[in-house]
Design brief:
CATH class of the largest domain in chain B: Mainly Alpha
Radius of gyration of chain B: 30 Å
Strand content of chain B: under 5%
Number of domains of chain B: 2
Distance between the termini of chain A: 16 Å
Order of helices and strands of chain B: HHHHHHHHHHHHHHH
Distance between the termini of chain B: 21 Å
Largest sheet of chain A: 2 strands, antiparallel
CATH superfamily of the largest domain in chain A: MetI-like
Shape of chain B: extended
Number of domains of chain A: 4
Number of strands of chain A: 2
Helix content of chain A: 55-70%
Oligomer: heterodimer
Number of strands of chain B: 0
Strand content of chain A: under 5%
CATH superfamily of the largest domain in chain B: MetI-like
Order of helices and strands of chain A: HHHHHHHHHHHHHHHHHHEEHHHHHHHHHH
Structural class of chain B: mainly alpha
Largest interface: A-B, 104 and 104 residues
Strand order of the largest sheet of chain A: 1-2
Structural class of chain A: mainly alpha
Number of helices of chain A: 28
C-alpha cells in the first residue's frame, strides 16, 4: 500500500517529479514557461494543490463520518471520566458557601453552608434531581444517597409551620396574587435583574434544559435588599413554576421554602427594614413583624439535623466539599483503588480494592492467552508455510473457518464442550479416565476462559506468522545444516530470528484483542475468569456509575493505544492483512 | 522439497517393527482396559493383539495379501468394538482397525521414509512425524468445537451433549425440533429479521464511504496520510467494550441510543476499517495510467470511475463489504449497549440464550451461522483469487 502511494517512489510523470525537474532546470537556465505562458513551476504547483484537494475531498465524507460516529463517542467517554459538574450544578450555592470552610478538622461547616444547602436541596428535590446527586456522591461515601433522599422528603415541614402561623394572622399569605404583587418589581421600580438571571441559569444547569421562556416576573431591587433570602427563594420558585411546571406565576401560592426564607429574613434584621416599607403587602409584613415571637425560630443547622442527623457528620460535608469542583480525578483514583483523602491521595481500605486486582488479572490472562497462541500457532504456521501449496491451502481452511465463524457460535461450542455434563467430560468418563461423580470443572473459571479465548484468537496469531514465514526461504535451513548445524541450532540461530517479526505482530494483535474481550469471559468466565471489561459493562448497565466505567475504559484505552503505537512502529498499520 | 529422492522401501527387521507396533497397540489398550476395569490387562492385551496381527501380516502373509489382511483387521476390530461398547464401540473399533492395518504395513515396510530425504537420522524421522502429529492435534483443537456443534443441533433431547441414542445412531435420537424452534419462535425470527435489516444497511454505508476514501487515500498526494489512516482504522483497534461504552454515552446524549439509526451508524463505523484495508490493498495493483488513458479518451472522472476503476477493484470492494457485513452480523457488544429491545439481533439473542435459559436452539442457530460463514469464506477466497489473477500476481 505504501509503496504505491509514497510520492517519492514514483518515477513517472507526476506533478511532484516535474516540480523537482523544473527546480533542477531553473538552476541551469531561467524559469521554464508552460504552454500558456505562466511559469511552469507555478502551474505545476497549482496542479499539485488541485490533486491534494481532490484526494481530501474523497476522504472527507468518511473522515467526518468516523469522527462523528466513533471518535466523538470516545472523546465523550474520556470527558465523562473526569467530569463532575453534577455537584456544582445541583447545589451551586452550597458549593460556594463551602469554599470558606477548611474541612480538615472536626468542626462542622458554617451556618451559611447549612442555609445554602437547605435552599439548594429544596429546589433540587422539587426538580427531582437530588437523588441523582445522592447516588453520585454515594460512590465516594456510602450512605449519602439515603441521606439526600430522606432529607428531600422532610424539607417542607418547617415552611409549612411558618405558613400556618402567617395564614392565621392574615389569609392573604396563602394567596398567589398577594405574593406576586409584593415581590414583583412593578411598572416603575428598579429590577433585581442580576438575581433573576443567576437563578435562571442555576436552574437551567440543574435541569439540563435551556429554560429560555418568558417567566412574566421580575423581582424588585427594593425587596431584594429588604428581604434578600425571601426574594431569592421566591424568584427560584417563580422561574420553576413558570418554565418547568408551566404555571402562571401570579396565580400560584409559592412553595414552603419561601415561607422559611421570610421567617429567617424577619428574624435576622428584616424586621427593622420592614418598618420603613410602604409598598404592596406592607401592612401584612408589619403585622408579621409585630407577632414575630409566634413565628418558629429558624435555625438551618437544626432543620437539616432534624431531617437527618447525618448532616452533623463532618465526613459527609467533607465528601461534598471534596467533590464540588467541576472536574475531578475521583473516578480515576477509584479505578486504581485510591481515593482523595484529607492528606492528598491515599489507598482505599483493603476490602474495597478490586480494580487493581482486575487489571492484573486481565493482563495476566491476556499474556497467558498470547503465550498459548504463540505455542499453538507457531508449529501450525510453520507447517502451513512449508507444505506444498495445494495441501497448505486445504489446511488453511481449517484455520480460516473458525476465523469466519461467529464469535457466539465458538463461545457456545466451548460451553458445550467444557461443561460438567459436556462433551469432553463425557468422553473422559466413557474412556474411564475420570470417575462419573468426579467430573472435571473446566468452565466458569480462568481455565475455561483461557482455553476458549486461545481458540478464538488463534487465527489472529497464525495468519501474521504464516505470512512472515512464507517469505523465509527453506534453503537457509538446509544451508545451515550443510554447514554443520544441528537441527536445533539451525532452527534457533537461523529460522527463528527471521520469524520474530511475525511473532511480534501476532502477539500484539492477540494481546490487544484479548485485553478488551467481553463476551467470552462473560459466558465461560464465571467469577474468577472475568476481565476488566466485564466490570466496565457492569458499571454501565447495572450500577450506573458511568464516570467510573469511563475512567476504567480510559485506562484500558490508554494501554491499548500504547500497544497500537508499538504495533505501528514494529509492523506498520498499513501492513495489516485480512484473509 | 525432495519428492524426487526416493528411499528404498524394503522390509524392516522384526526387532524394529514388532516393538513399535506392539507399543501402538498398548497405547489403545490403555483406554479399552481402563474403560473395562483393568488398565494393565488392557495394555498387555493391546500389545499382544496388535503385535500378533503384525507378525501374521508381515512375516507370514506379506505384501501380496495386504488388502485382505487390512480388511480382516478392520472386521476384527469392528466385532471387538461392538462386543465391548455396542454400536459406538463398533465405529471407534473400525477406525482403530483401519489405522492399525495401515500402521503395521507403514512401519513394517519402511514406507514412512518413502517421501523423506535419505540422509535423515532415525531421530530426525521420528521428530518429523511427531511434529506432524502435534500440528494435527492443533488443527483438531481448531476445528473440533465447530464440528461438535453441528451433530448436537440435531439432538432430539434438550441436552447439550450426545445422548446414548445419538451415539448408537438410533434415528429416534435425532430430530429437527431445534430448527423448528428457531423457525417458529417469534423471538428468534424477530432477531433474525433485525440482523438482516441492520447488517446490509451498515455494510452499504461502510462500503460507499470506505471505497471513496480508500481511493482518495491511495492517490499520490495526501496530506496527513498517516494521521487520517490511524483515525479511520481506529474502530478496529479500540476494544469493543470501550467503543460500546463511548457510543452508549454519546448516543444517549444526542438521542440515538436505542434506535435503529444508532445501531446502523455504530455498525457502519465498526465495519469501515475492513473496507479501507481491503480496498486499499486492491488499489496497490491498480495501474494508474488506465485512468489517465480514459481521461485522454474523453471520459469524465465519474465515467472513468464506474467504467474503468470500479470493475477492476470490485473484488476488493466486495470482500471488504463481506467483512463489514460479517462484522455487523456477528457483532454483539455494541448492539447490546447502543440498541434497545427493539433492535435485538441474532447474536444478542444467542448471548441471552447462553447466559440465561440454555436451550439447544442456540446450537441450531450456530449450525446455520456456520453454514453462512462457509459460504462467505468461499466467496472471499474466490474473489481473492480472481483479484490476484486480474492483477497478474498469480498464474492461476
Amino acid at each position: 500500500m505504501t509503496d504505491a502511494t509514497d510520492p517519492d517512489k514514483f518515477t513517472g510523470a507526476t506533478p511532484d517529479n516535474a516540480l523537482r525537474n523544473s527546480d533542477r532546470a531553473e538552476e541551469q537556465a531561467g524559469p521554464v514557461l508552460a504552454a500558456d505562458g505562466t511559469p511552469l513551476k507555478r502551474s505545476l504547483s497549482r496542479a499539485l494543490r488541485r490533486q491534494k484537494l481532490r484526494a481530501l475531498g474523497l476522504i472527507a465524507p468518511l473522515l467526518i463520518f468516523v469522527l462523528v460516529t466513533f471518535i466523538a463517542p470516545i472523546a465523550d467517554m474520556l470527558f465523562r471520566s473526569v467530569e463532575n459538574q453534577i455537584v456544582s450544578n445541583t447545589i451551586p450555592n452550597t458549593v460556594q458557601a463551602l469554599t470558606e470552610w477548611e474541612g480538615t478538622g472536626d468542626d462542622l461547616p458554617p451556618q451559611s453552608a447549612y442555609e445554602a444547602m437547605y435552599f439548594d436541596l429544596f429546589l433540587a428535590a422539587e426538580a427531582k434531581q437530588h437523588t441523582r446527586l445522592g447516588s453520585r456522591l454515594n460512590y465516594e461515601q456510602a450512605g449519602i444517597s439515603s441521606l439526600f433522599r430522606t432529607t428531600g422528603r422532610s424539607l417542607d415541614d418547617i415552611g409549612d409551620d411558618v405558613q400556618d402561623v402567617l395564614e392565621d394572622m392574615d389569609e392573604s399569605w396563602g394567596e398567589g396574587p398577594f405574593w406576586y404583587d409584593m415581590m414583583w418589581v412593578g411598572n416603575s421600580g428598579e429590577a433585581a435583574r442580576d438575581l433573576f438571571d443567576t437563578k435562571r441559569s442555576q436552574l437551567a444547569r440543574m435541569t439540563g434544559e435551556s429554560l429560555s421562556g418568558d417567566v412574566n416576573f421580575m423581582p424588585s431591587a427594593q425587596m431584594a435588599e429588604m428581604l434578600p433570602l425571601t426574594t431569592q427563594a421566591y424568584t427560584s420558585w417563580a422561574i420553576f413554576a413558570a418554565l418547568v411546571d408551566g404555571d402562571t406565576v401570579k396565580e400560584e401560592e409559592p412553595w414552603e421554602a419561601v415561607f422559611t426564607a421570610l421567617a429567617y429574613d424577619l428574624q435576622n434584621g428584616g424586621a427593622e427594614r420592614v418598618a420603613a416599607y410602604d409598598g404592596a403587602g406592607a401592612a401584612q409584613l408589619q403585622q408579621a413583624v409585630e407577632n414575630l415571637d409566634q413565628i418558629p425560630q429558624i435555625d438551618f443547622q437544626a432543620i437539616m439535623a432534624e431531617a437527618d442527623e447525618d448532616w452533623n457528620n463532618v465526613a459527609n460535608w467533607r465528601t461534598i466539599k471534596l467533590y464540588s469542583p467541576d472536574y475531578t480525578p475521583g473516578y480515576f483514583l477509584n479505578a486504581v483503588d485510591m481515593q482523595d483523602g484529607l492528606d492528598g491521595f491515599e489507598a482505599r481500605p483493603e476490602n474495597q480494592q478490586i480494580y487493581m486486582m482486575l487489571f492484573k488479572r486481565t493482563l495476566f490472562m491476556s499474556l497467558m492467552i498470547t503465550g498459548s497462541c504463540i505455542l499453538l500457532g507457531y508449529p501450525v504456521a510453520w507447517i502451513l508455510a512449508n507444505l506444498p501449496m495445494r495441501t497448505a491451502n486445504i489446511l488453511m481452511i481449517l484455520v480460516l473457518l473458525p476465523f469466519w465463524t461467529s464469535l457466539l457460535v465458538r463461545t457456545s461450542a466451548w460451553k458445550v464442550m467444557l461443561q460438567q455434563q459436556g462433551v469432553i467430560n463425557d468422553v473422559l468418563v466413557w474412556l474411564g479416565l475420570v470417575a462419573d461423580n468426579d467430573r472435571l470443572i473446566m468452565i466458569n473459571n480462568q481455565f475455561g476462559t483461557i482455553v476458549a479465548m486461545t481458540h478464538i484468537l488463534l487465527p489472529f496469531m497464525i495468519l501474521p506468522l504464516y505470512s512472515v514465514m512464507q517469505t523465509i526461504p527453506p534453503s537457509y535451513l538446509r544451508a545451515a545444516k550443510s554447514l554443520g548445524a544441528t537441527n536445533w541450532t539451525a532452527f534457533w540461530r537461523v529460522y527463528f530470528p527471521q520469524s520474530v517479526p511475525g511473532i511480534g505482530a501476532g502477539s500484539i494483535l492477540v494481546f490487544i484483542l484479548a485485553i478488551g474481550y467481553y463476551i467470552t469471559p462473560e459466558i465461560v468466565g464465571g467469577t474468577t475468569g472475568t476481565f476488566i471489561s466485564n466490570r466496565i459493562a457492569y458499571h454501565i448497565s447495572s450500577s450506573l456509575n458511568w464516570g467510573l466505567a469511563a475512567a476504567l475504559g480510559s485506562i484500558l484505552l490508554a494501554v491499548v493505544l500504547i500497544l497500537y503505537w508499538a504495533y505501528d512502529k514494529i509492523v506498520g498499520i498499513d501492513n495489516v492483512k485480512l484473509g | 522439497m525432495a519428492e524426487v529422492i526416493l528411499t528404498d522401501t524394503g522390509k524392516k527387521p522384526i526387532s524394529f517393527w514388532l516393538p513399535v507396533v506392539a507399543a501402538a497397540g498398548a497405547f489403545a489398550g490403555i483406554f479399552v482396559g481402563t474403560a473395562n476395569g483393568s488398565t494393565l490387562a488392557g495394555v498387555l492385551g493391546g500389545a499382544i493383539l496388535v503385535g500378533l496381527l503384525g507378525f501374521l501380516a508381515i512375516e507370514m502373509l506379506g505384501r501380496p495379501m495386504e488388502k485382505t489382511v487390512r480388511w480382516a483387521i478392520v472386521a476384527l476390530f469392528v466385532v471387538g468394538g461392538f462386543l465391548l461398547g455396542g454400536i459406538p464401540g463398533a465405529v471407534v473399533g473400525g477406525l482403530f482397525g483401519w489405522f492399525y492395518g495401515w500402521f503395521i504395513y507403514w512401519i513394517g515396510y519402511n514406507r514412512y521414509r518413502a517421501k523423506l530425504v535419505p540422509y535423515l537420522t532415525p531421530g530426525q524421522v521420528l521428530w518429523h512425524y511427531a511434529f506432524r502429529v502435534i500440528c494435527g492435534a492443533i488443527f483438531v483443537f481448531l476445528i473440533t468445537p465447530i464440528l461438535v456443534v453441528m451433530p448436537l443441533s440435531f439432538n432430539a433431547e434438550n441436552f447439550f451433549t450426545f445422548t446414548p441414542e445419538m451415539l448408537s445412531f438410533d434415528p429416534a435420537g435425532y430430530s429437527l425440533r431445534h430448527y423448528r424452534d428457531f423457525f417458529y419462535s417469534s423471538d428468534w425470527q424477530q432477531a433474525l429479521w433485525n440482523s438482516v435489516s441492520i447488517a446490509p444497511v451498515a455494510t452499504l454505508l461502510a462500503v460507499s464511504f470506505g471505497t471513496l476514501a480508500a481511493i482518495g487515500l491511495s492517490s499520490e498526494h495526501v496530506p496527513f496520510r498517516r494521521a487520517i489512516m490511524a483515525v479511520l482504522i481506529s474502530p478496529m483497534i479500540v476494544p469493543l467494550i470501550i467503543s460500546a461504552a463511548g457510543m452508549y454515552f454519546f448516543y444517549s446524549r444526542i438521542g440515538l441510543q436505542g434506535t435503529y439509526v444508532g445501531v446502523v451508524l455504530a455498525h457502519a463505523a465498526l465495519g469501515i476499517p475492513f473496507v479501507i484495508i481491503t480496498v486499499t490493498a486492491t488499489l496497490v495493483g491498480f495501474d494508474r495510467s488506465l485512468t489517465r488513458a480514459s481521461a485522454n479518451l474523453g471520459a469524465g472522472p465519474v465515467r472513468t470511475f464506474f467504467k474503468v476503476q470500479m470493475p477492476l477493484i470490485l473484488p476488493g470492494v466486495i470482500s471488504g463489504g463481506l467483512f463489514a457485513f460479517i462484522t455487523s452480523f456477528d457483532e454483539v457488544v455494541v448492539v447490546l449497549f447502543v440498541g434497545s429491545a427493539g433492535q435485538k439481533t441474532l447474536p444478542w439473542q444467542m448471548f441471552i440464550g447462553l447466559r440465561e435459559q440454555i436451550s439447544p436452539t442456540i446450537l441450531a442457530v450456530a449450525t446455520i451461522l456456520v453454514a453462512i460463514s462457509i459460504c462467505l469464506l468461499t466467496t472471499v477466497e474466490l474473489l481473492r483469487r480472481r483479484s490476484e489473477r486480474l492483477r497478474g500476481m498469480s498464474p492461476g
